[in-house]
């Protein structure tokens, strides 16, 4: 849970992830040890220290645990990559949205400036010429 929380909050430091995996390994070993002791007591045996597993079984347990931890590490790495990809996608879409809003604002401003320019420029109005008086037509 701690590792997942770290990854979901954006953590990706390999040293910290390794440390979290190491802590998880220790916890798993401790849990298996206590579970073995509890199982022994439940079966009606006296509360004596459990016998160490045979070397072959211990080797298989260690190998299985190592594979399990590597699998979890890879899952964590995948999760971290997904989180980073989602953040980049979110940042990209937010940037695109900001650009679209800025473009719309600038287009509106250009439109207002055009209207203002058309209203204030005297050379845009048609020139006023004096009416020419034509000579009277011969009768």
TrEMBL record:
Keywords: Coiled coil. Residues 64-109 form a coiled coil. The lineage of its organism: Eukaryota, Metazoa, Chordata, Craniata, Vertebrata. Transmembrane segments: none annotated. Residues 39-58 are annotated as: Disordered. This is CCD17 protein.
